[in-house]
Amino acid sequence: MMVKKKAPKRKKATKRKAPKRKLTKKSVKRNVKKTAAQIKKEEVVLRKKAIAEFKKAKQKLLAAEKKMKAYAKKNPDKAVAIAVGVGAAIGAAVTAVMKRKK
Question: Considering the entire predicted model, what is its pTM?
Answer without folding.
Answer: 0.48
